TrEMBL record:
Similarity comment: Belongs to the Homer family.
Domain of life from the UniProt record: Eukaryota
SMART domains: WH1 (SM00461)
Cytoplasm in keyword set: yes
Taxonomic path: Eukaryota, Metazoa, Chordata, Craniata, Vertebrata
UniProt keywords, alphabetically: Cell membrane, Cell projection, Coiled coil, Cytoplasm, Hearing, Membrane, Synapse
Annotated WH1 domain residues: 1-110
GO cellular component: cytoplasm; plasma membrane; postsynaptic density; stereocilium
Organism whose genome encodes this protein: Phascolarctos cinereus (Koala)
InterPro entries in the cross-refs: Homer, Homer_EVH1, PH-like_dom_sf, WH1/EVH1_dom
SUPFAM superfamilies: PH domain-like (SSF50729)
Descriptive protein name: Homer protein homolog 2
UniProt feature coiled coil, ranges: 179-317
């Protein structure tokens, strides 16, 4: 009733393999809550972790325990009472550091509590030893010296013993009342356990019923999923049909516009058909002109051919005249050279004479 949580974290819980004492066995399938509890009635500290309805850690911390960090995210401690070694795997190094610091604080607090309890035990034992020593001495004195004065002198010791006896009786009465309280609490716990067992059985029956309902719902869900898939396929087909209809509508609009264009062209052709006779007469007139032009063109071509022949003949005559002129010029050059030679000869003769 007086136990309260003082620190809580989450971690994966492991226990050492009892056969090999080396390998770790997982005690939880996933990260669970791990808490430090303080019992004010017993002045003790515990580490408790529960996975569902199963208690996987119930370790009372003593001053002799040591929490060891074996990696950045894993730590362990040995519990001699449970005859096992617990291991915790954390998600971060910071969580491991906080848990280790809290373990050290709780360990120091447990040590202080143990020291205080030992002091109380030593104090009570010293009081009992003192009272035990005084009683035989007083009886020995009374047996040896049986005078009234000596008996009167030992009166305060007997009064002290009576007060101690009364205290012991009171303590026994309180312990008996505490035993009755504990018996009542034990009975209450048994009744609570019976109620929890009945509730657990009811919950187990409810779980079976829920499992059946879950199976039915799962089958119904599968059937609905298949139906949804069929409907989705039908919707896809409908969407495809809509797309095809849209394409056909666009094609139909395009054809209608083409038909309208063709109708306008047909009207234009009909209008043009009305002036076809006039165009035919004009075409005949143009054809006659064209024929006359072709005849004139033929005559002109004949003239051009005759002129070309004349030009060729004139070119031939010009080439012939050029050849003759060239020969004449060559002969003339030769004659001019002879005249120059003759003139130089005459000049020479004139100078000599």
């Amino acid at each position: 009733m007086g136990e309260q949580p003082i620190f809580t974290t989450r971690a994966h819980v492991f226990q050492i393999d009892p056969s090999t004492k080396k390998n770790w066995m997982p005690a939880s399938k996933q990260a669970v809550t791990v808490s430090y509890f303080y019992d004010s009635t017993r002045n003790s500290y515990r580490i408790i972790s529960v996975d569902g309805a199963k208690v996987i850690i119930n370790s009372t911390i003593t001053p002799n325990m040591t929490f060891t960090k074996t990696s950045q995210k894993f730590g362990q401690w040995a519990d001699s009472r449970a005859n096992t070694v617990f291991g915790l795997g954390f998600s971060s190094e910071q969580q491991l550091t906080k848990f280790a610091e809290k373990f050290q604080e709780v360990k120091e607090a447990a040590k202080l509590a143990r020291d205080k309890s030992q002091e109380k035990i030593e104090t009570s034992s010293n009081h009992s030893q003192e009272s035990g020593c005084e009683t035989p001495s007083s009886t020995q004195a009374s047996s040896v010296n049986g005078t009234d004065d000596e008996k009167a002198s030992h009166g305060p010791a007997e009064a002290h013993l009576k007060s101690e006896n009364e205290k012991l009786k009171l303590a026994l009465t309180q312990s008996a009342s505490n035993v009755k309280k504990w018996e009542i609490e034990l009975q209450t716990l048994r009744e609570s356990n019976a109620r929890l067992t009945a509730a657990l059985q009811e919950s187990a029956a409810s779980v079976d019923q829920w499992k059946k309902q879950f199976s039915i719902c799962r089958d119904e869900n599968d059937r609905l999923r298949n139906k949804i898939e069929e409907l989705e396929e039908q919707c896809n087909e409908i969407n495809k049909e809509k797309e095809r209809n849209a394409q056909l509508s666009k094609r139909l609009e395009a054809l209608e516009s083409e038909i309208q264009e063709k109708e306008r062209e047909l009207k234009d052709l009909r209008k043009q058909g009305e002036i076809i006779p006039q165009l035919m007469s004009e075409c005949d007139f143009v054809t006659e002109k064209l024929e006359a032009s072709e005849r004139e063109n033929q005559n002109l071509e004949d003239k051009v051919r005759s002129l070309r022949t004349d030009i060729e003949e004139s070119k031939h005559r010009q080439r012939h005249l050029k050849m003759e002129l060239k020969n004449f010029l060559e002969v003339l050059d030769g004659k001019i050279d002879d005249l120059h030679d003759f003139r130089r000869g005459l000049s020479k003769l004139g100078t000599e004479n």
